Amino acid sequence: MNNQALETIFNEIADLLELKEESGFRVNAYRRVARAIGSLTEDVQAIADRGALEEIPGIGKSLAEKIFEFLDSDKVDFHEKLLAELPVGLITLARLSGVGPKTARLIHASLGISTLDELEAAARAGRLRTLPRMGKKSEENVLRGIEQARRQSARTPIGIARPMADDLVAALRALPQVRQISVAGSLRRMRDRIGDLDVLVTSDDPDPVMDAFVRSPWVLDVLAHGPSKSSVTLRTGVQADLRVVPPEAFGAALQYFTGSKEHNAKVRERAVRAGLRLNEYGLFRADGEQRIAAATEEEIYDALGMPWIPPEMREDLGEVEAAVAGALPRLVEAGDIRGDLHMHTKWSDGSGSAAEMARAAKALGYEYVCITDHSQSLKFAGGVPPEDLRAHIAEVRALSNKKLGIEVLIGAEVDILADGSLDYDDDLLAALDLAIASVHSRFRMTESEMTARVVRAMRNPYVTILGHPTGRLIGQRDPYALDIDAVIREAAATGTILELNAAPERLDLKDDHLRRARANGVQIEIGSDAHAAEGLALNYGIGTARRAWLTAENVVNALPLVKLRAALRRKRGG
Ligand code: DGT
Ligand code: CA
Ligand code: CA
Ligand code: ZN
Questions:
Q1: Domain check: are 422 and 478 in the same one?
Q2: 161 and 145, same structural domain?
Q3: Ramachandran bin of 74, using left for φ above 0, alpha for ψ from -120 to 50, beta for the remaining angles
Q4: Do residues 506 and 539 share a domain?
């Protein structure tokens, strides 16, 4: 849990510095380190013990000292000092759409406001309009921002929930009384936001398992404590349910607690029609106690005349009917992915070199990667000027496939400017293997303006991929106003590939949009958007793709290199 705590602290430092409007470089340095620590697979304590902290990308002497401080005292002095200056609640206020750091500080300094509730009361009472440059309209914007923030905070983004669940599972797995263990619920179905964590354990001796669970160090509050079910609130504010069943009922319980409720209702209906009864202990004859299936999910589905249905599909969106008809698609899986086409290096706001990213991708078993740094206008993210990009193209072309064991392509994540034109000339784009066009600025346009902007970019023959098409940050920023169906139609008409950005805070396009894209025959690129070697994982993206029933045929980076190159050239007519 050290890593998660440090990630939070460094992110809070970045937030507080941003609140103070300190230099973007400083803010970004802390964010980068937070991200690097968050993606480590080893505890920082172990790394510190080996004296290898400074080998973590982005960590120099002063950050290493802060980590030591934390390991010694559970605190970082610099963080505490910042918190003493500005209440942490202001971070939430500054993040509201319609507020921002300057206004948040002003509101705090002049009205003493530091929480959402206080801000809401002040806005409703018309007290915000007494401040300089604030009016009735800005009060309305603030109220809208508050409503949006409340709506989002009720569920936890999967990128935050999953690591918590993994820690919990690892701790429980170590108990001698635990036989099988699995996550269940919406987390197993890979939904992008999670209501609560569900963990299922089998054991012949549940009491010690439940005791260990409710006493674990990250539990804040125990809501229920019984032999088959316990519920707690974790220190992170997220609720977790643990259920313990006997080993012979594992499959039935896993099927039941994975849900969704709608999927289970559909499955139960089939059981009833076959004269059977299904619950968390097994599949039984309706007229007696005879158990037909219980140990594995496979045997339960099989007894109901279906193949096993992948958890990501269990939303009652036609999967039961497809399974019964023998028409379940073979969903894309990690092993189908041959490369990653979206990543940043230290040429813009990443922390590795092109060769380092390539080697890390090679270690994942990939055949190719594409380096896609930010374009010139994105100054705060180290956007690359055209002449530098020319030099990078030459450098990447000189990287040897033989030596690295992986093909390195060169592209760019090029900004879509406010009018839909691109941040590099066509000549330069033509010299790249691909261009991902993304919106990174001027989010507040009307739907028709934004749609026209994006569509114009897609009509450029050198725009290979539309990056993170809706711009959402799960739990932090709503998608911008965009007619997604018009964008999907345009993608189909122009042969533009749509991105499924696999960064856990984005997952953009989301499942529902991906289903519509698939129905329109649009190709999808699943890209990590990694900013360091550790960020190359695509697991959340693949889970999301599976929720949309995507197969390897729908995914452009499941193609072998030769076919990929052809696919990338298709839109250019070459
Ligand atoms: P969440 O937590 O809101 O993200 O969504 P889930 O799907 O994880 O829902 P949760 O945690 O309430 O329950 C986990 C699963 O357990 C759910 O998907 C289906 C099953 N389940 C829970 N309560 C009931 C119930 O009252 N009836 C049925 N049929 N299934 C239930
Ligand atoms: Ca749940
Ligand atoms: Ca639950
Ligand atoms: Zn981007």
A1: yes
A2: no
A3: left
A4: yes
Domain that holds residue 538: 334-570
Number of domains present in the structure of the chain: 4
pLDDT of residue 574: 57
Mean pLDDT of the region 440-454: 95
- Any idea which of 149-153, 181-185, 415-419 has the lowest mean pLDDT? 149-153
- Residue 297 sits in a domain of what CATH number? 3.30.210.10
The protein residues having their C-beta less than 5 angstroms from ligand 4 (an ion) are 438
pTM equals 0.79
Instruction: State how far the Cα of 510 lies from the Cα of 410, in Å rounded to an integer.
Output: 27
DSSP conformation class of 56? S
Show the tokens assigned to 292: 């037909």
The 10s digit of each residue's pLDDT in 241-258 is 999 999 999 999 999 999
- d(C-alpha 44, C-alpha 517), whole Å: 41
Question: Do 136 and 220 share a structural domain?
Answer: no
Q: Cα(551) to centroid of ligand 4, in Å?
A: 25
- Nearest atom in ligand 1 to the alpha carbon of residue 261 is 19
Compute the average pLDDT of residues 209-226.
91
Contact 259 CB / ligand 1 (< 6 Å):
yes
Closest approach atom of ligand 1 to CA 257: 16
422/494 same-domain check? yes
Residue 276: phi, psi to the nearest 5? -120, 170
Do 442 and 367 share a structural domain?
A: yes
In contact, 421 and 459? CB cutoff 8 Å = no
- How close is the Cα of 120 to the center of ligand 4, in Å? 32
In a domain? residue 15: yes
What DSSP assignment string belongs to 216-241?
STTEEEEEEE-SSEEEEEETTS-EEE
The pLDDT, as a whole number, for residue 28 is 86
Instruction: Specify if 467 maps to a domain.
Output: yes
Residue closest via CA to ligand 1's atom 20 equals 257
Nearest-CA residue for ligand 1 atom 14 is 185
At residue 2 the predicted structure's pLDDT band, cuts being 50, 70 and 90, is confident
CB 383 less than 6 A from any atom of ligand 1: no
List pLDDT tens digits, range 413-434. Answer: 999 999 999 999 999 999 999 9
Residue 260 beta carbon below 6 angstroms from any ligand 1 atom: yes
**Do 25 and 86 share a structural domain?**
yes
Cα 342 to middle of ligand 4, angstroms: 9
CATH number reported for the structural domain that contains residue 501 in this entry: 3.20.20.140
